What we know:
This protein is mainly alpha-helical. It has helices spanning about 10, 15-30, 35-50, 60-75, 80-95, 120-135, 135-150, 155, 190-210, 220-225, 260-275, 280-295, 300-305, 310-315, 315-320, and strands at about 165, 170-175, 180-185, 245, 255. It has a 3-stranded antiparallel sheet with strand order 1-2-3. A hairpin with an 8-residue loop joins strand 2 (about 170-175) and strand 3 (about 180-185). The longest helix has 20 residues, at about 190-210. The termini are far apart.
Amino acid sequence: xxxxxxxxxxxxxxQSPKLLDQVRQSIRLKxxxxxxxxxxxxxxxxxxxxxxKRHPKELGAEEIRGFLTHLAVDGNVAASTQNxxxxxxxxxxxxxxxxxxxxxxxxxxxxxxxxxxxxxxxxEVKAILAELAKINPTYHLIASLLYGTGxxxxxxxxxxxxxxxxDLKQITVRNGKGGDDRVTMLPVxxxxxLKLQLAKAAALHQQDLAQGYGAVYLPDALERKYQxxxxxxxxxxxxxxxxxxxxxxxxxxxxxxxxxxNVQRAVKLAIRRAGVAKNGSCHxxxxxxxxxxxxxxxxxxxxxxxxxxxxxxxxxxYTHVLNRGGRAVRSPLD
Length: 334
């Protein structure tokens, strides 16, 4: 009897956890992100369920093609999602099972359509931030940082106290996309709000220490190398969560940073309340940051560096938003 391909994999999967544990171990060995781990494990489970819970060793390139076709046709997933699923399966066979599957390297990646980024006007930014201030002052500060620095949402939420330099008026973004660090500016107008935020975070940290907690997650085994660093003030998150939580990887009870989903929902609500008829998000503040720097005449290489783009071609998309890049042409009607 065929398996229901639309049901949740967690509920149905009977595949031995040993294989998925191997996947997780391989991912962590390569220092890949937790989000990548979750995505890869999810699509590997889906792949197994789609083929009636057969072990991946029994499957090959044709079965992988069939699964990807199912995602595209029946699941109607985006090209980027289809490519993540393919990457997960390539990782499974090459890094975990250590198998050479004939024809595996010939499976093409889905073509991603090119879309112009959603950019808020300056008035729209003011209106959205004003609504966000009413919803949650902390989220207002986070969104202001996204617009004022060009950081991605998770880069902002992952900020540690030591990453903010008030004297130099700069923020160090650690382990950004691609694993690289970079430096961006600290807007002068956000210095005092950030100091107030740090004061609240410090009070919360002292409360945690008094209750026997106060530790945060440290990357790349730093917790073993510097045993007390996880409780030091400099390593604490600038935007700590309201509640303690259990680390799903280690079981340790810690205070993580503010939830990404909560900030995204609040921004979506603020956009609606501000009457902005654009399908914007937290990332639109980053797009707006880049667009207005270019509009103000800053060199595209400077903007590339601030955004952390590896290739200037990625940054070039904002010139299309400005109608520049060889297309600054006036309409005959004007």
